[in-house]
Amino acid sequence: QVQLVESGGGFVQAGGSLRLSCAASGRTFSSYTIGWFRQALGKEREFVAAINWNGGTTYYADSVKGRFTISRDNAKSTVYLQMNSLKPEDTAVYYCAAYLFTGQLISTNKRKYDYWGQGTQVTVSS
Looking at residue 102, what is its pLDDT? Predict the structure, then answer.
């Protein structure tokens, strides 16, 4: 089992940057695939990015490709989401999530993820 805590959200102007962190507890963090999802007000929760257990495979939603970068530090049990060139449409609550898997493939389906953090708000003004 793993517990996840997000941090790093805030208010930023369009074109700015933020770095989100997802800190995990549990001894087997390196066995989990980690994803970032977001949910804007009145919308479904959507996939943003994910990284496999050893960082060898990453995957991004088309809407953030080239602007966001996901990375992980297994020694610190932390996953990061560097968000650059932020747009107002990036405004949402951002969640990190995890499922136990040590393969190369990454799921973008939120139903695959068993553990979720509480979320952190990101607001981008125009």
Answer: 83
